[in-house]
Amino acid sequence: MESLEGGSDGISQMKQTQEPLICGLPDDIALFCLARVPREYHVVLKCVSRRWRDLVHREEWHAYRRKQNLGETWIYALCRDKFEQICCYVLDPNSLKRSWKRMLELPSCSLRRKGIGFEVLGKKLYLMGGSRWSEDATDEVYCYDASNNTWTEANPLSTARCYFACEVLDQKIYAIGGLGLNSSVPHSWETYDPCTNNWNSYSDSNIIPEIEDSFVLDGKIYIRCGRSAVTSHVYAVVYEPSSGTWQHADAEMVSGWQGPAVVVDGTLYVLDESSGTRLMMWQKDIREWVAIGRLSSLLTRPPCKLVAIGKSIYVTGKGRSTVVVDVSNAGNMEGMMVSSSIPELSSNDEIISCKCLAI
């Protein structure tokens, strides 16, 4: 009797896999239709049937949406709340409400860590390293799959580190510098390759601790460290993939790198927070920094983090207050810049990092 029941289950599963995604349509046509459902409704698609749920989780789904330019980018903000615990919020820029929503709880062991790394690769978010006052730096890595809304433990860093820079270049995560359990950590970096699921370590004496910001421009990684106590100059280095080495960055460009930076269509923008909030642009053809305009002090709450979606820069500050600036319409002006805002003034959460993830 047990064997008959087992055989029956197998037959039912086989029938299920043979059932079309949409009755009366070939699966390729069904995929053409379903892939055009907005991202905010993907959770509803997964409730329709097991086949639809499995489809939304599969790489085929994400590859098809990318190929057809159907991917939708959401912003993820890693924050620290009034209880000194980290939390994560997500913003759908295309939503009519355009409000930040709290994500599924983060891994409990990471909640009170500081100096934690935060990066996006493909459809996954990564929490890396960090430390607590009673604990040394850790090599732990946790991965959030945005397609199925779950956290899992991932392959650990090769070196325990905290307060380090994170960037993605050539589909690999770079964990750069920071502090750790030995003196070599500040002068090292490592890369994660999702194809091999391995971290590889490297070292370079040009990397120093106290990294404050980073970005990728023209296929190179730039990191900015704290000001020199002796010269007051900003120290920055650039990673050259062709040689696998870090070199001193262009001094003229670095001189204007006075705040959080973001790259839009190959152009570098920096938010100068030294006196109010002023958006600056590096014009590499004439090698000068140009002031784009000021943002209203009523809308921005420094310190801020920047991300870009298309031609729009999202400036997110304390309490997740967010200002959106369309740089395609921004010109060189002396007054306030025209922008839209997403206020979150009831909160005082500190913004640790902001990243974009497209599905």
How would you portray this structure in words?
- This protein is of the alpha+beta class and 359 residues long.
- The chain has three domains: 2-67, no CATH class; 87-98 and 251-350; 104-249, Neuraminidase, CATH 2.120.10.80.
- It is built from six helices and 26 strands.
- The strands form seven sheets. Strands 3-2-1-26 form a four-stranded antiparallel beta sheet, with no helix packed on it. Strands 4-5-6-7 form a four-stranded antiparallel beta sheet, with no helix packed on it. Strands 9-10-12-13 form a four-stranded antiparallel beta sheet, with no helix packed on it.
- Helix 3 runs antiparallel to helix 4 (50-57).
- It is globular, with a radius of gyration of 23 Å.
- Mean pLDDT is 89; it is low at 1-15.
Uncertain segments are 1-15
- Mean pLDDT value: 89
| Helical residue percent band | 10-25%
In terms of structural class, how would the helical and strand content be classed?
Answer: alpha+beta
- How many helices? The count is 6
Strand order of the largest sheet: 3-2-1-26
Helix-strand blueprint:
Blueprint: H1 2-18, H2 27-34, H3 42-48, H4 50-57, H5 59-67, E1 73-80, E2 86-91, E3 101-102, E4 117-121, E5 124-128, E6 141-145, E7 150-154, E8 161-162, E9 165-169, E10 172-176, E11 179-180, E12 188-193, E13 198-203, E14 211-217, E15 220-225, E16 236-240, E17 245-248, H6 251-255, E18 261-264, E19 267-272, E20 277-283, E21 288-295, E22 305-309, E23 312-316, E24 322-326, E25 340-342, E26 350-358
Helix pairs in contact: 3-4
